[in-house]
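Sharing a chain and its predicted structure for anyone who wants a worked example. Both blocks are below, sequence first, tokens second.
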Amino acid sequence: MDIFERIDSAKVLPVAVIDDAGKAVMLVDALARGGITAIEVTFRTDAAAEAIRLIRKKRPDILVGAGTVLNSEQVRAAANAGAQFLVAPGLNPDTVSAAAEVGLPFIPGVLTPSEVERAMNLGLSRVKFFPAEAGGGVAMLKAMSSPYRAMKFMPTGGINAKNLLDYLSLDCVFACGLSSVCERSLINDGAFGDIERRAKQITSALEPLNRR
């Protein structure tokens, strides 16, 4: 199973901002107890690379990618740390090229039809729809995806257990990014029981899809 197939299977990708790399393994353990075995660690903190390295070393069964990857330097840092895929909020051709050079799957962000076409011209078939709710939500994604049937989207931003299935029911959606599962404050407070509970809520919300 390749990386995109694993993301497809997971259906959800918790987005984590980690300030203390020492909490990374406890975080993914809490998610796993809740039924989620994939995570995106954002490059918004100095601890991101070390957090990814520790997860890959100590929990090799967890699928871990680097998020908020904005330039070629971060691409290389993420690759060196062992990230299995990359995610970005926007579409930067230089970053797309850097990801290809290191051989990592890359999911850049788009919000408009013009950006989708730019992504297609760069040879991409999967993108992040961001910010999803602020950018028009399900209705916008439906309208935008209609003329671009070959493109698959990972909506991220404002998605939770209540609206998750609204997105995942769309044929154009392969997974959803979720920042609500492991909020930064919960990680910093060591509230891993709360994170586990939120992960279980997401897993329960996915049950109708799993029964299909």
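Comments welcome. The chain has a mean pLDDT of 97.
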